[in-house]
Amino acid sequence: MTIRLPSPRHVDCKPTEGCAATAGEPCYSHGGTRARSSYHRVRTAAWQEARMDAHPAVRLVADAAKAKRGMHAAHAAALLDEHGYSSEAELIRTAVRDRHGLMSARQATELLLKTAEEAS
Ligand SMILES: [Zn+2]
What we know:
Blueprint: H1 41-53, H2 56-67, H3 73-82, H4 86-98, H5 105-119
Helix pairs in contact: 2-5, 3-4, 3-5
Bound molecules: zinc ion.
Zinc ion binds next to loops.
């Protein structure tokens, strides 16, 4: 089962750092300066976390990239293989080749997430 969360509106906006809008509601405007289509940073961050939680392979790479700054996508592919995510590993290896080796684990995370969400 895959879960698709197309925008930050699908998660709550934290009442402490955000505006306490609940899932489904837009973020509340601040003096009319905030467009209704934009979200508080804390809500966007919570949304990113939820998207990664929905896809374990993405969560695996994201956590590793967070722990190791400057991690290369090739290391992300090796990590995916170690945990049995062979098709995800192959996707990353192909992308690394296409980009002539210029790809970070963080970029790999984004590619995995995009691919996983498009497949769902
Ligand atoms: Zn908000």
